[in-house]
Specification:
Layout: E1 2-7, E2 11-17, H1 31-48, H2 53-58, E3 62-72, E4 81-92, E5 95-103, E6 109-120, E7 127-128, E8 160-166, H3 182-189, H4 193-196, E9 200-207, E10 216-224, E11 229-235, E12 244-252
C-alpha cells in the first residue's frame, strides 16, 4: 500500500507498508520484492519528471538493469512501515548508476545498495550512452557504498548442477523478457534446503543476457562454506561453460 511519495529532480522517496503477500515463509519481505521496489521506483522517478516508461519507449528508449548489489542489515516484516529512496547518481561509462535505501521510522538503514542500468533501443537492443539519452536525469551524486555492482568472478569448472527452469508467461515483464526481480527467485529456489535457511546479508546480480518465454535455464552453483559465499549461474545449456543469462553472488551468515 503506497501511502506517501516525496520527490525532486533526481531522487524519490516512497513510504510503504509491507503486506502479507510480499513476504516469504519467514514473514520477512521477499528479496524478489526488494528488487521489484528498486526497479519500480526508478520508473516512478522518471514518471515524476514527465518521462513514463511508455513515453520513453515511444521515443526509442528502454531502461534495463545490468548489475545490482545490495547489503541487508535487516529485512522488514509484514505490516512494518518503511521508506524507500532511489537516487540517480553519476553515470559510469555507458551505464546509469542508481542508489537505493530502505529505512524504518527511526531512520535506521535496513537495506542499501546500488545498481547499473543501460539505455537500449527497443527493437535492436543497441546500447545508448547516457550522454546521448536526451531524458537523462543529470546527477553528480556518488554515495559511498562498499560493495559496488561489478562483474562476478568464479571458475566454471567448480559449478554444480542444481536444476532447470522454463521461463513461463507469468515470469515476463512488459519488455517481453524475464523480469529482473525473478532472477533472485531462481538463485534461491534451487539451493539445497540447508542454504535456503541461511540469512543473506549481501547479494549481487549480473544480468548477462535476456531470456524469453519458453526458453529453458539451467541452474548451477558453487558453495564455499569457509567464506560463507554462494555463486549461482543460470546457463542457456546444460553445460557449465555455456553462456549465462544471469549470475548471482550470495553472502550469508
Amino acid at each position: 500500500m503506497n501511502e506517501n511519495i516525496k520527490s525532486d529532480k533526481n531522487e524519490i522517496t516512497k513510504e510503504v507498508k509491507i503486506m502479507f503477500g510480499q513476504c516469504g515463509y519467514d514473514g520477512k519481505l521477499h528479496l524478489e520484492q526488494v528488487m521489484q521496489y528498486c526497479a519500480d521506483l526508478v520508473t516512478d522517478l522518471y514518471t515524476q519528471n514527465g518521462q513514463s516508461r511508455a513515453f520513453l519507449n515511444s521515443h526509442g528508449y528502454i531502461q534495463m538493469v545490468s548489475r545490482s548489489s545490495l547489503h541487508i542489515n535487516r529485512l522488514p516484516c509484514e505490516n512494518e512501515k518503511i521508506f524507500i529512496t532511489v537516487r540517480e547518481e553519476k553515470p559510469e561509462g555507458f551505464q546509469m548508476m542508481r542508489y537505493y535505501k530502505f529505512s524504518n521510522e527511526n531512520n535506521e538503514i535496513l537495506i542499501e545498495g546500488k545498481s547499473l542500468w543501460v539505455i537500449v533501443e527497443p527493437s535492436s537492443r543497441e546500447v545508448i550512452s547516457p550522454d546521448k539519452f536526451e531524458f537523462c536525469i543529470k546527477s553528480d551524486a556518488q554515495t559511498p557504498f562498499e560493495r559496488k555492482p561489478g562483474k562476478i568472478r568464479y571458475s566454471s569448472e567448480n559449478l554444480q548442477y542444481l536444476g532447470e527452469q522454463t521461463v513461463l508467461l507469468s515470469h515476463l515483464d512488459p519488455n517481453g523478457h524475464l523480469t529482473n526481480s525473478r532472477y533472485i527467485n531462481f538463485a534461491l529456489d534451487y539451493l539445497p534446503e540447508i542454504y535456503q535457511k541461511k540469512t543473506i546479508t549481501d547479494f549481487r546480480l549480473n544480468f548477462c543476457k535476456e531470456i524469453k518465454k519458453g526458453e529453458k535455464m539451467y541452474i548451477f552453483g558453487i558453495f564455499d562454506d569457509q567464506i560463507q559465499k554462494i555463486i549461482v549461474a543460470g546457463k542457456y545449456r546444460n553445460d557449465v561453460k555455456s553462456e549465462s543469462s544471469f549470475e548471482c553472488e550470495l553472502i550469508y551468515k
